[in-house]
Write a structure and sequence with these properties.
By secondary structure, this protein is mainly β. It has one domain: RlpA-like domain (Barwin-like endoglucanases), CATH 2.40.40.10. Helices cover 7% and strands 36% of the residues. It has a six-stranded mixed barrel with strand order 1-5-2-4-3-6.
């Protein structure tokens, strides 16, 4: 978990969901948009349509922040999907959907 920083400009506020884990059929046979294998236990994976592949983002929910890299795409209109592990660092996966603010790091 990374502390929130006032120096970063929030680009997007919206919702985030999670994917991969909890027996939903995702596994090492799944390949992401960047060509790498998807690992739901990797806390740095995000799927987003708004930023280029490879972009690093700071994602904050309440007082918790994490850094993720856009490695996948999705058929969704919300801010982003996080790997099961990344979402778990921000909230309980049981929540399913959380409000987030997203800042581009690099």
């Amino acid at each position: 978990m990374v502390a929130a920083s006032a120096a970063l400009q929030v680009e997007v506020t919206g919702i985030a969901t999670w994917y991969g884990g909890g027996g939903d059929g995702y596994g090492p046979e799944d390949i992401m948009a960047n060509g790498a294998y998807f690992d739901p236990n990797d806390p740095t994976i995000a799927a987003a349509n708004r930023w280029p592949l490879g972009t690093w983002l700071r994602v904050c929910h309440l007082d918790r922040c994490i850094e993720v890299q856009v490695r996948d795409r999705g058929a969704f209109s919300h801010a982003l999907d996080l790997s099961y592990a990344a979402f778990s660092q921000l909230a309980s996966p049981d929540a399913g959907v959380i409000d987030v603010s997203v800042s581009r790091l690099r």
